[in-house]
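Technical note accompanying the year-one report. For the benefit of new consortium partners, we illustrate the data format agreed upon in the data management plan: each record pairs a sequence with a structure-token string. No post-processing was applied to the example shown here.
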Amino acid sequence: MENIEAGCSRGNGRWLAAAGAVGLLLLPAATIWAGEGQPAIDTGTTAWMLTSTALVLLMVPGLAMFYGGLVRTKNVLGTMMHSFAAMGIIGLLWVVFGYSMSFGKSILGGWCGWNTDYFMLQGIDDVILDAGVPEYVFAMFQGKFAIITPALIAGAFAERVSFRGYCVYIAIWTILVYNPLCHWVWAADGWIFNLGADGAIDFAGGTVVHISAGVSGLVAAFYLGCRRGYPKTAMHPNNLVMTLMGAGLLWVGWFGFNAGSAVSSGLDTARALTVTQVAAAAGAVAWMIIEAVHLGKATTLGIVSGILSGLVVITPAAGVVKPGGAIVMGMAASLVCYLGLFLKEKLGYDDSLDAFGIHGVAGILGAMILVFFIRDSWMHDAAANVGGSWSVMQQFMVQFKAVAATILYTVVVSGILVVLVDKTVGFRLSESDEKSGMDHALHGEHGYGLTNLN
């Protein structure tokens, strides 16, 4: 528990949860005393964290709709199954040992954590964190991050992987990649959390979620190769209406994703929620403008890409920047991601739904440029924490090291893993199954009750 409480309360760059102290100042009706030696339950913060947990989970079916609308008709169910399978598989693994690996005390030289009380969540039944939140709520909130991250990867190799291989891949990937990264970045004794004078800034998952997912997807896309017929054969989205609805659900859910990461219900929560809204709007407007200039028209696929770019870029920075910085970051993300999509054409890899092109690129960008938009109050606090020696360039180098370490570790481990899965249970679909489509070949179903549609 100490590993979590220290992580939640340290600095304004991560979980800015002074909610435990705030809770003691609230009216008696807003608190429930848990008994001798236990902090009070802050019902306001707990209610918000319960809401945030539900909002982050809502992002998973939102992602399923977003990805499902972008693929061909014969692959819509198989693609959506990737998101729902993650809800089940990772949801179980997180409870059994994922939470312990992520937030337990460091073992194996700091590679991951472990706490026997966190195994099967058996030792947290009556634990209340200093933030005034039952640890069950915190564990479930973090579990939703673990669920959506491997689901994001699926966009990079959509329409060409076996369901069995995918399930094995995300299970092992979560154990070997996500859980260690989560421990490094967010646990109080994680080495990235303690990198430099005041630690690396990753408020809600720029490195842990988006860079790891995007880079892993890129590695898998290179190894598995392109979809058969790509890029010569046109592969049009089957339902952009569904993609738009999915993007809307992602935007709504992202408020829980970012604002919930404050583990409080106060000023820091309001700041994170505000910049999330602002960056998403800025990203959407910027992408529309770019398309209008470049193509002469704004597209629905373009606006949802801009929304996601803005949401991703602000994720690591949600606790430290002001709205003006969020506008610049959101617009910069759309521009960089738009240009990045041309790189895919130049290099010839098939990142089917731009998992790396959006999540990887915007995640890297956000983690790096946030240092130039940090609000004054955060800088003053950081300087005080390190005796006045903090500077923007020092923090930039800390961010660079954190991003570089995340990329390097993810490339190596996910690269080994994708080869291992492919050589054992099989990962790439056979030519006949890919032509038939995942829906029929893997699940014996059709998404719209129709046949012979591409």
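Partners are asked to follow this layout when depositing records. Confidence is low (pLDDT under 50) at residues 9-29.
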